Amino acid sequence: MDKKGRVSGQLTQEELEHLIKQISHIKKHLPFLIQLSPEERRGGLKMGDKTIAFVERALQIAKERKDLLPPYVDLEEMERDLELWKNLGILAQELSSLLEAVEDTRMAAGADAYTTALFIYNSLRQAAEAGVPGLDTLIAELRRRFEYAVKGRQSDENQSEENQG
Predict the structure, then answer these.
(1) pTM
(2) Spatial separation of the C-alpha atoms in residues 112 and 125, rounded to whole Å
């Protein structure tokens, strides 16, 4: 097939292992990370853009009027939590951008490979129709991919025929 796909790249096993080690290295620098249960995620307080101003102002007031606070309120811990929230937000933004690019590239690479596989499948079918012997078993093996197509929807096989036609 002459046509290039949307993505062309390579990630060797050695490079993959190196990147996984780098991710592990990042995780080691974030030993305080936790994982919330689905219930905790749904039920817990969440700070967002609308809440940050409230939290920052409450901290400022508390620093100015410590005499109004009970002794068990730890303002230093609150400041650390606030700074951690802000810094993790920056990190999350960078990681989200990277994850989105990885997922998009993976999707495009999969689509490229699948498009080529459909081209190969249709080429085998056309060769068999032209009388090339010994292809029935190979075609039947590849055809299994399309056996579970939902009725009422056009299957990938039919779409590939239209693309070839």
Answers:
(1) 0.73
(2) 20
